[in-house]
Structure formats: structure tokens, C-alpha cells
Amino acid sequence: MASSSAAVAGTAAFNLSANRNKDMLTSASSRFLSPFPKTLTSLQSFPIPAIHSLHHRSISAEFSTEPPPSTTLPPPSHRFSLNEPRKGADVLVESLELEGVTDVFAYPGGASMEIHQALTRSPSIINHLLRHEQGEIFAAEGYARSTGRPGVCIATSGPGATNLVSGLADALLDSVPLVAITGQVPRRMIGTDAFQETPIVEVTRSITKHNYLVLDVEDIPRVIKEAFFLARSGRPGPVLVDIPKDIQQQLVVPCRDPPLRLQGYLSRLPKPPQRNFIEQVLRVVSGSHRPVLYVGGGCSNAGPELRRFVELTGIPVASTLMGLGVYPTDDDLSLKMLGMHGTVYANYAVDKCDLLLAFGVRFDDRVTGKLEAFASRAKIVHIDIDPAEIGKNKQPHLSICADMKQSLEALNSLIQETGLDKKLNFSPWREELDQQKKTYPLSYKEFAEAIPPQYAIQMLDELTNGEAIISTGVGQHQMWAAQYYTYKRPRQWLSSAGLGAMGFGLPAAAGAAVGNPGVTVVDIDGDGSFLMNVQELAMIHIENLPVKVMVLNNQHLGMVVQWEDRFYKANRAHTYLGDPSNETEIYPDLVAIAKGFKIPGARVAKKSQVREAIKEMLETPGPYLLDIIVPHQEHVLPMIPSGGAFKDVITEGDGRTQY
């Protein structure tokens, strides 16, 4: 049997006793599964070892018992006759084909070899061989974030599986649909400290939306079907499926179209919002004078509906880091990004507003700063698909637990039905914010021929017309990319927001290039983040992906240096990444490294060279690396210190200033 907490009857949880080379004595199962990650577990004992469950949360809205409509996909190409036995690994690959999977990111090992052998027999699935499991899961994330389809990655047991951990945590925090499949030692060896054995179900218990340990080969079709349904539905997230090697090798005639065993989960999927709740929201809107939209990643599937809502109401829009592109940042009503490194005018709007419409957001600390001071003058309306987010950090005056696309459709319909759009007039408020834009624009200083990193991003924006898919690592370059590039559509901006995982940018760009052929993909990276997954240049070269890598190289961990400058009297504590014996030399030579992977590249150190260098990068077929040398003294501004409020915003100064 497959151990799944999704089964109503329940199966067992994978718990090892203190002495792991003895029998597994304890097991458990949840009675239901939540559509939302990270809830509390309800356990019941069973005699068979298997997996963990999602932790259940209390639910505060009405829910549908009907599953969302399914998409009919073409059957997989027949490699076997209908009733011919085939290996579990082949059943797995057929199940992936039935889910419409065309690309996987997988690195082979002893416990997953059978899966790779089966992949070679698939006529429709291509494996993209990255060079590290962390790279493969970040690539799967880049694929998922940029396409909206679940990313699929496969790793072997033990170290292969544990190398997926950062990506699983990242996908959970940023609500990315992901299915991770891991090989496991044979069932008889589980709990014996076998070679490359790790209880990955236990390891990933709190960083997945759900996970499975498959103990019966006949359960593979159902488990894979459920895994994709769980990853896509409700609040999206990562699902892990752990398959022992003997299960992969066992012969079976697979079950056709197995039913889902997700009754508890299905009963908790949010229904469309009720009309009376929508009416309450619009009453609050009509009574306000200074409203602001605060939109996040929960709106990523509702871009057109959000734009229509703004068109009808004239309410200005501030975006979170995850929300960039959901509403075009070059529109007159866009306030760009809010929060720690948001624009002054976005944070001013939230501070002064009398109504905050929080759509698809979670009030995280990098947005709110000091919670008591955040939107302290405003009524708050919070709409989100996850009931656990409502009231978790900031108590709303009115809340709806529902899908954002359906909620915005209902709001837009009722606005037009009632003619509210003809009655709303927020012109004085918009004029006040326009004045703030003029007084506090995003800006930077120039020093002779030194290259301001902000300028390099502006040139990239100009030369790509704001149409490229942008990925980043984590640090100063990430914030500058958020501030100075134009994002016109959802899924254009790929960045590790909640977890803040360095090394994300390059493999994510590779995954985005796989999922979006013909689209320009640029990894704006820092020298620190870039080196964390530099090995993925190999896959990018082998597949000749048109990934452009623009490294803002300041030879330092720039964001940590900025905090050292501001709060630690510029005391450098292991933040220099160059060669201390020769600080005048750029080290390492990233262009030489790229050429070692047979990828062309160039380095620029003068502002006058930047435009032509970026143009050459974009015009060169295939991958390219551009190393842009920038001053380490630059600071990301504006900046609200951690735990601060709008009144504490910093707009001036850098590493050249004494504090």
C-alpha cells in the first residue's frame, strides 16, 4: 500500500524508533488533509510503516465538496499492451505522462536508476540533467513559477534526497507547485541504516504540503495523481513521493484512472466567495477616501482580473516581492514594491491610507516592519485562499477565504452591476501619491566611470523593453532588480522571496528557459549567489539554452556589507569574497569560468561600456555571461530597518558615509 495521510481510512506514518536498526514500532495517520501547507496533525495508530501528514488548521469559511474540473489529457504512448505487466518505474513514468509532464529535472543514483531507465523509454518526457540536486529542484521551481505548471524533479536516496531540502522549503514558502520524487532503499532495508538511507519523509515533514512513502506498487498511479492534484490545488505547494527501489522493480499491471482518496482535503477547498461578502467589501471601498491595494503572489493567476478591478476603481497598487508583475509596474497607478526596500511612495501610501485591500498576501515581516505601525490608520480587507494566513500576523476588519481570481471576478461583476465604478473618485488621493513619486523617486548617485548597479539594470530593461523573464539570486542585486526592471505580467519575475536562498538564480533561469522556449531569460545575479550553483552552466551549455547571466560583481556579500555599514560600524566580518592577498584583482575570474564551460562572456568595469556590453550579451545566440564590476559601497535604498516603521525610512547614504 502507499502510505498517505490523504486516505480517509488512514495509513501509517513513517516513524523510526530511537534504535533505528530495530523494527519500526510507532506509526500514525491523519484523518484528513488540509488544502493548505503546514497545519496540525491528528494521529491514529496503525501497524504498517508509512508517512507523515499535513498539520490541520481550523477553517473559517465555507468549502466545496466537489473537486475542481479535471483536464483531459491524451493517453501516454503505449510501450506495453494494456494488460502487460511492467515495472513500477515504468508505471511511474506513465503516470507522469498522464499528468501532461513533458520535462523533468533529474539526477540519477543507485536508488533511482530504475526511474531513469524508464524515462529513456518515454517518447514524450525529456530529462534535463543539471549537475546538483539543489540545482535541479531550483530549475523545477523556475519552470513552475514561469509557466504555472507543476515542476517535477527526481533524486536518488540519501544525499540526493537531502539536497532537495532547500528547494522544498523555498517552494512551500512561495507557494510553488512542485512534485519531487525520490528513490529509497528497498523496503526490507528501511530502518537499518543502509547505504544512502535517509528517512526523507520525516526530514521533509514540515517543509512540504504533503508527502508519501509508497509501500505497494499498485498505489503508484493513485499517489502520482494525488500528488499533482495536491500540488496544484488550494494554496499550491511541494509534494514529495518517496519510492523504494524494490517497488520500482516490481512487476504490475497498473490500475487505470484510480480514484483520489482525498475526501477530507476536497471538502476543505474554498468555495467561490458569497455575494454578501463581496457586497461588504464594496461598501467599505465606497466609504473610503484613501484606499490602497496591497497585492502578492496569491494574485499570480488573476492578473487580468486585478487589472480590470484597478481600471474600474482607480485604486493605486503596491506589490510585494512575490507580487511583482501581477500588476504592471510601469502603469501610472502602480506604486511598485512596498516593504523594507520598497519605494517611499508605496510605503507612504500604506502608512496614510484609510483602507488597505490585502489581496493574496501574508503580511510577512519584510513588508510590514513593526506590525503595530503598519497601516495603522486603515481598515483592512484581507482576501486569501489559505485561512491560516488570515489574522496570522495582522487582524483584518473584513476577510474572505477564497481564490483570488474568483474573488476579483465577483468584485468586478458587482461593481459593473451596481455602477459603482461611475461613483468612485479617488483623484485627490492619487494626486497626493503622484506628488510623492515626484518628491521621492527611485534614484542613485554616480561616481565618474564606476558602474552603478541600478544603471546596469535600467539598461537591461531598456534593451529588452521590459519583456524578459528575470531570475535572481538573493542579496542587493535581487532588490535592485525588483526596483529598476519593469515587470509587465505575472510569472515574469522569479526569485526566492520567503526563504531567501542564494544560488537560486542560475538554475531557475535554466528551468524557465526550458518551459518558455523563445523567450529571453536573464539571470541577474551577484557574485556570491552565482558561485553557489555555478555548476549549472554545464547543463545550460549542453542544451544550448539562451540563458543570459548578468553578474553584478562587487567582490563582497553586498547585503551583509550594507548592514555592517549601517549597524556594525563597517566592521567586516567575513564578507569579502575576493582574494585578500591581492584586492586589486577581480577574483575569481567569472569570464574564464564561463569559458571553461564553453560559454562566451565578457567583463566591463566602466559605465560607458555597459550599454554595448548588454546589447552584445542579448544578441549573442545561446548562453552568455556578462561580469559587471560594481562598487561594494553601494546600498539598496530606500530602506526601512528590520522591525522599523515608515517614519524610520532611510533614503540617503552608502558605504562611503560615516555612521
Automatic annotation (TrEMBL):
One Gene Ontology molecular-function label: acetolactate synthase activity
Domain Thiamine pyrophosphate enzyme N-terminal TPP-binding, residue spans: 87-197
Family annotation (InterPro entries): Acetolactate_synth_lsu, AHAS_TPP, DHS-like_NAD/FAD-binding_dom, THDP-binding, Thiamin_PyroP_enz_cen_dom, Thiamin_PyroP_enz_TPP-bd_dom, TPP_enz, TPP_enzyme_TPP-bd
One record GO biological process: amino acid biosynthetic process
Transport as UniProt keyword: no
EC number: 2.2.1.6
Keyword Amino-acid biosynthesis recorded: yes
Pfam family, one: TPP_enzyme_M
Keywords: Amino-acid biosynthesis, Branched-chain amino acid biosynthesis, Herbicide resistance, Magnesium, Metal-binding, Thiamine pyrophosphate, Transferase
Cofactor binding description: Binds 1 Mg(2+) ion per subunit.
Domain Thiamine pyrophosphate enzyme central stretches: 278-411
Domain Thiamine pyrophosphate enzyme TPP-binding: 473-628
Metabolic or biological pathway, per its Swiss-Prot or TrEMBL entry: Amino-acid biosynthesis; L-isoleucine biosynthesis; L-isoleucine from 2-oxobutanoate: step 1/4; Amino-acid biosynthesis; L-valine biosynthesis; L-valine from pyruvate: step 1/4
Recorded catalytic activity of this chain's protein: 2 pyruvate + H(+) = (2S)-2-acetolactate + CO2
Cofactors: Mg(2+); thiamine diphosphate
Family of the protein in this entry: Belongs to the TPP enzyme family.
Protein's name according to its UniProt entry: Acetolactate synthase
